[in-house]
């Protein structure tokens, strides 16, 4: 934070989940809302944060963000929350600019009178600012953050695992040129690790962490025993350099013992505390035979293919095995299906259709990365991957369905999807 220590403004992106309670009356909800609430000096008034309609929340946050030019720090918690903000600015830019010019929230935005009054009280007429925002939006998404907020120094958000693809898309478009940092590896059950390299941009180098060992009791299952009925477990001081493990924790509140599903690799030591890199989620595997293709390997192949797609980047993706869908009745071929949403790096209005050779690149890259997958492809047991390019906005639609009852912004796109209703939506 050495570059972000002036008296300029900070934007905290927070969304209030719908309150849920268990049968015995215990409150339930996403951990991020409780451990990192919006501070009282935040740019967005608290009344706006308490709106429970997700689309209205996003709109009001975007309105206050655009009204303030001197933002230097943006705390997003998770990459999807950052993406949601910028998509709202991109898609509803003209509405937002009109509200800036008027210095009030549009009557088309349906909110309680008390909330509207609080929002309007904190807004002011910003005609010149609205004109500048319009000009910058017309230039496209690349580098938009720095054009809207020239003093922006740092964006913090979780960038690993399921969030990596979206983080990299943000870095190549909206927040290009802005220092990006993930300060920790956190689960709802407990903080797991902290970054020992605060000066390093999280998207320019593989992010590493050291264990926050005072927050929970950690045990580790060796990678080759993850699927065992009774796996061996090791303590923190027994971890070996170069080896991978699934994290098992016992939390401090109730002494509940969890298998997190997070698989990490030990890459060094800070004194006696292991330094590790996140690899993949144990449950996010594709397997038609015995190949067990991990999320880590699959995304590495997808990322390698993306580098050869000229002017195109991945918006979001998921995958499944052909055994989970019936594209052609009676077809018994085995293959992976990749559902991917693509955007242009050059212009939001430019057509983004993957050619067949570009689609086949993903399969080729996966064969290079996974020796077992390549063996099955070579002997014909598994056929070439089927790439299905979905319509723009498909994954946003899936997210809206998934969080409709909770407004839980910790939602993650499943990288291995086997839910019939969602697969049906993807195949439409």
TrEMBL record:
UniProt domain GH3 middle: residue ranges: 209-281
Coiled-coil zones: none
Top-rank lineage group of the source organism: Eukaryota
GO cellular component entries: cytoplasm
InterPro entries according to UniProt: GH3, GH3_C, GH3_M
MF annotations from Gene Ontology: acid-amino acid ligase activity
Domain (GH3 C-terminal): residue spans on this chain: 299-418
Annotated transmembrane regions: none
Name of the protein: GH3 domain-containing protein
Organism for this UniProt entry: Capitella teleta
Lineage start: Eukaryota, Metazoa, Spiralia, Lophotrochozoa, Annelida
